[in-house]
Amino acid sequence: MPNDPETVDQIVIGGGIAGASVAAELARTGTVVLLEAETQAGYHTTGRSAAQFTKAYGPPVIRGLTRASERFFRATDGTEAPEGLLRPRGVLFVARSDQHAALQKLSDLLGDSVVPTTAQEACHMSPLLRSDYVSRAVFDKEAADIDVDALHQHYLKTIRALGSDIRLKSPVASLQYSDGLWRADTPTGPVQAPVVVNAAGAWADDVAEMAGVAPVGLMPKRRTAILVEAPETAHIDDWPMVVDVDEEFYLKPDAGLLLISPADATQSPPCDVQPDEMDVAICVDRIETAFDLSIRRISHKWAGLRSFVPGGAPYACFDPDARGFFWLVGQGGYGIQSAPALARFAAALITETPIPSDILNEGVTAADLMLRRNEVAA
Ligand SMILES: Cc1cc2nc3c(=O)[nH]c(=O)nc-3n(C[C@H](O)[C@H](O)[C@H](O)COP(=O)(O)OP(=O)(O)OC[C@H]3O[C@@H](n4cnc5c(N)ncnc54)[C@H](O)[C@@H]3O)c2cc1C
């Protein structure tokens, strides 16, 4: 094993969508080494998502980043983005009669991007919805399924094509700063760079602690997803995703099956998280209450960690107290749909180049994605 560290412009820790996308952007102007602990770059949260693109979903900063990502997703931004990353799938946000206030709030927030929809229309669009359950809905017709694997692979291929390096099976075991360089030690050898990007998902605070940097209070939260069969006679492919307005459940067609979730958010330590049987039971109960569906068999189930930071918006910024240490964390349940713009944004800050104007035009500024230690402590 070589002991002399390889020297590059940036080290990126974490090969999920956050690390892969920012490394691809950085590789355009410098040399990058992407370090991933697992044998597959998408093994953790990135490979476990519901793969939905919804401009109406998430806090304002996420919605801005998602709007700024849309041209890339639709391959209309003039870059080499692959075609077919999005496939239309509208989202119906549904409300019971006791949830009208929540639906009104969502409707006021989203304005013209959603269309008021009657219970009858909602049941027509999603035929298993119980007409005595749903009372009102709003429809986001511009939402879509994301081909997450194609997106992730695009970034990984770009990194290699630009001459930078991806090292799998390379958990960073120590991270130290000296003489203006961060040195990362891994089983595949040491590497050093003036900048290290912490894109380690649920492990980001562990990585910080290893580096002697104060953690940001990251909160990984478990979310469960289950695949079940649809009734044989149902033609589910073109059905919308249905999301409870208070996010108590969702259901969407997924490759001939129905993906359902209780939309759980249980705090968890960083780990290879697995579904909890209680969450599975809650999911089945909520779905059977809202839909005319009797769930007898579960085809597949999994869980993933959605990681949040105080304030709710991600951090994409240099640590104010640790030179060259860049945070790219806290993407919550929206890290795929916002990744293209967030990666360009982060790369601009890291390379000290202007933030792309199309992202600024969506109302996203560096201040929105900045870590403020006083907020973390509060
Ligand atoms: C059930 C579910 C549904 C979701 N649905 C959606 C959706 O519809 N739309 C959407 O946009 N988002 C969705 N999300 C959220 C989205 O999946 C995440 O925001 C995104 O995948 C986070 O990516 P990441 O790269 O930060 O994390 P990860 O994919 O977890 O990547 C972090 C990587 O860092 C590596 N790592 C950690 N420590 C080290 C170390 N010391 N050395 C080297 N490597 C290390 C890990 O092995 C891991 O591969 C969903 C999430 C879940 C769980």
Brief overview, please?
This protein has 378 residues and is an alpha/beta fold.
Gyration radius, to the nearest Å?
Answer: 21 Å
> Helix segment count?
10
Question: What coarse outline follows from CA principal-axis ratios?
Answer: globular
Low-confidence stretches: none
* Terminal Cα span: 45 Å
What kind of oligomer do you see? single chain
Number of strands: 22
Largest sheet: 9 strands, mixed
Task: Report what the structure shows.
The protein has 378 residues and is an alpha/beta fold. It folds into two domains: 6-51 and 148-218 and 311-377, FAD/NAD(P)-binding domain (3-Layer(bba) Sandwich), CATH 3.50.50; 91-141 and 219-308, D-Amino Acid Oxidase, subunit A, domain 2 (D-Amino Acid Oxidase, Chain A, domain 2). The chain is 26% helix and 26% strand. It has ten helices and 22 strands. It has helices at residues 17-26, 60-73, 100-110, 119-125, 148-161, 204-210, 277-290, 339-350, 357-360, 373-377; strands at 6-7, 10-13, 32-35, 52-53, 86-88, 91-95, 115-118, 136-140, 144-146, 165-167, 174-178, 181-185, 191-193, 195-198, 219-228, 241-244, 250-254, 257-261, 266-267, 298-308, 315-318, 325-329. The strands form four sheets. Strands 6, 7, 8, 15, 16, 17, 18, 19 and 20 form a nine-stranded mixed beta sheet that branches. Strands 10-3-2-14-22-21 form a six-stranded mixed beta sheet, sandwiched between helices. Helix 1 (17-26) runs parallel beside helix 5 (148-161). It is globular. The mean pLDDT is 96. It binds flavin-adenine dinucleotide. Residues 13-19, 35-38, 43-46, 48-52, 171-172, 199-203, 207, 223, 225, 304, 306, 331, 333-337 line the site of flavin-adenine dinucleotide.
